[in-house]
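Researcher: Structure for this, please.
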Amino acid sequence: MTIKARFEKFTKEIKPTPEHIDEANRQTEYMIDQLHNKVAEDGSFKLEKILKAGSNAKFTSLRKTEENIFDVDLGAYYSGEGATKERLDTLIKFTLDQLRSIYHQKEKEDFEKLKSAARVKFRSGIELRGDVAPIIRDDSLGVENGGWIPRPDGWRLTSVTGHNKFVQKRTTESNNVAGPVKFNRLVRMVKWWNNLQGDLAQPSIFCELITAKAVETYGVMGDWQTSIRHVFSYFCKHQFLEPIIFSDYYDARKVKLPNDKVIVMDSVNPQNNVTSFWTETTRTKYMDRIHDAYDASMEARSAELDGDEEAAVDAWCRVLGDAFRTLSEPDGEGK
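Model: Predicted structure, token format:
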């Protein structure tokens, strides 16, 4: 089996199955419908809309593993007296109370109030985890469905739709390039690698932004090996020493950059640096992982050119974990 064929199989295997997605959509639609009903019955607030957010909405979600927890993110837009950004914390509790009412048969430990959302966990079937974040509409960013959302570091002005379209736009552009590599699928692979980095693993939005920056320079290539190697190659040169910023929703040239050590700016809100917490130690350690991945990918390339498939697989396993071997085996093997 060629490395090209292995990558094509691996990229299909690391995404949730159609059956998994269908079941997640079914459970999510039920949750959305019931939330609308419960909020309307309560009458304290008005629930204007609930939008799908996160990896599922962007088609970058990963299959459930020990490193990858399958969840769905929803943005619930509230209005009415008392529905203000200052009271988002109250709205998280209110949302959690509605979820408890919907799933009254579930155990207490299946519900959790996070700093950014109300969470409900399902322990059977696909073991879905649903996070519902309250949002207070604010159009000052000039982006569709803008609003304030609670985050662990404080309220943040953002747009669910803006983030979804950031990925969708680049995925559509990648469709113009012949070959199997699409932007959202490349993000999925970068996320897979990132999630193997233990304490250094970064959030999904970080993976989207760094992949977009590398693709901005190299584009997507006709094969997976080159495309993922180019992501590592780009950052081996970049080193996270210059700001990563985009002009999809604002003029990057006019943004007043923060004095943070590493700057990877939110593509929707130019006042949100997603790496504001990075220290020099974080940067150097993450760069060590990137250099290791790039070196292994180059060894894999050399082995593939020499016709040594086994050595190439070994090298790619150093990048993507042993799952690269087992998930890319022909059907009936490595299971």
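Researcher: Any notable elements?
Model: The first helix runs from residue 3 to 13. The CA atoms of residues 103 and 268 lie 34 Å apart.
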